[in-house]
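Reopening this ticket.

The earlier resolution said the output was attached, but the attachment link was broken on my side. Pasting everything inline this time so it's all in one place.
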Amino acid sequence: MDNQNQKEIKLVATYARVSTSNQEDQKTIEIQTGNLKELAEKNGYTIIKEYKDDGWSGDILARPALDELRQDAKKKIWEAILIYDPDRLARRYSYQELVMDELREAGIEIIFITIPSPKNSEDKILHGVRGLFAEYERAKISERFRLGKLRKVKEGHVLTTEAP
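Inline output:
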């Protein structure tokens, strides 16, 4: 990852998220946090706090760890947040931008493992396109899941949310 920090970052937090309903996404919390810790160690960062939303959809903004992260950002107990990929922050591009703007306004640097944080107009456009693709992927997964359930019902299976 190419990190061109304007100031020397020492204290960081990490954020990781997986959705239990999204079985196609093979990135578990452990893999994400392992990669984030490796990045921190490689760059000499000290991880102050880890935020984890395990089993929370990136399609909603109200998530316990993300809410806590947003509150803590205002307290400035860390200087940057390490996140595996923008789609771990949110599946909707508008939510990604909302949270990222909030963090930037608090003076918090956002560092992704998979791509550099947007620094100029071209980066922002690329980030926007990636965000839109993440949103599209989420919609595609939901539609496949819905069609699969319909197929099972047509085949005579009984679908319930609880075991009989």
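Reporter confirms the inline version is readable. The CA atoms of residues 150 and 159 lie 9 Å apart. Residues 121-154 form the longest helix (34 residues).
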